[in-house]
Amino acid sequence: MIRTRGLTKDFVVSRTETVHAVRGISLDVEPGELVAVLGPNGAGKTTTLRMLTTLIPPTAGTAEVAGHDVVAHPDRVRSAIGYVGQGGAAGASQRVRDEVMTQGEIDGLDRRTARRRADELLEVLDLADQAGRKVESLSGGQRRRLDVAMGLVHTPPLLILDEPSTGLDPHNRANLWDHILRMRTASREPMTIVLTTHYLDEADTFAERVVVVDHGQVIADDTADALKAELAGDRVALRVAPGDAGKLATLAERAPGTRSVAIDGDRVEVRTADGPGATPGLLRAADAAGLAVTRVDVTRPTLDDVFLSLTGRSLRETAVATAPDLSDDEPAGTPTAPATSTRKEVLA
Ligand SMILES: Nc1ncnc2c1ncn2[C@@H]1O[C@H](COP(=O)(O)OP(=O)(O)OP(=O)(O)O)[C@@H](O)[C@H]1O
Prior knowledge:
Layout: E1 2-12, E2 18-29, E3 34-38, H1 45-52, E4 60-65, E5 68-69, H2 74-80, E6 81-84, H3 96-106, H4 111-124, H5 140-152, E7 158-162, H6 170-186, E8 192-196, H7 200-206, E9 209-214, E10 217-222, H8 224-232, E11 234-239, H9 245-254, E12 258-264, E13 267-272, H10 275-288, E14 295-299, H11 303-311, H12 315-322, H13 343-347
Parallel strand pairs: 3-8, 3-9, 6-7, 7-8
Antiparallel strand pairs: 1-2, 1-4, 4-5, 9-10, 11-13, 11-14, 12-13
């Protein structure tokens, strides 16, 4: 469904500065896959999606989407995809339901189906009460939900979503995911979904495959479970008398499967491929050496641990620091120029 080879994007910012936003990404996404693309701010995720959706041309490399080259046949690509970008796609002076319906008709739905889909999506995304209101009167969170409704109104074979849930409250995030998953199972053809998210729990729970991007390159690509097992490992924390921590650490280093051992006061933290499997052996070794273990905690790694082990940095910190405030309390007002071109502007 997607095939890129050496996909590259440079932005020439000035005579002396070029931003190498995407540096040779080669990626294959099969029909029916649900792929989450993770990475810190500025990693190149949006730029990659914008090339795949034909909003910007690649500097080098190739990309085929739904069987069509993004440079040679952008129209064919556009008609095969649904896209939710980061910029507000709706016209400020239009009414909410009309905007969703119009987008549906642009995407090829007949008027009745467009209305039914619009009403369904406005209900799912908690916008039914705002259906007759003008877009400019919506809060930031409501406007984001409207963007998502416009992107999902037709049920294309390929959905590309750039941070669809950013700024939504937990209730609306859950509804959105429920709807996306239902759309997917209801569609006759396998629906392919590629999305970026800063919510690691979403990627962990819903994505069948996680692609980690950093500095414009893919640095890991696998299922969340495989990435966690390969790159982060489980943590077994054992508490002993402070004077015994060194002896226990030495024993733990010799235990099968141990990747690393760290001491923190009376706590010995063992990184191992299989925490629950390794714990009985660690306890037996401690017991045989006369060391009394007073507490054991086994923790499975998160995708943030995966990123940390790959890069030495935490994804969570960058996400929290830059998550936009889409408060539902205040109307968002007329938007300033969006950071990315919108679907309506460019794909219509
Ligand atoms: N139009 C542009 N002109 C110049 N530089 C750009 C432009 N668009 C993106 N960049 C730069 O390219 C790099 C990648 O940006 P991109 O938006 O793709 O990152 P991202 O991974 O989507 O980040 P975020 O998680 O913050 O959305 C960044 O350094 C960004 O500043």
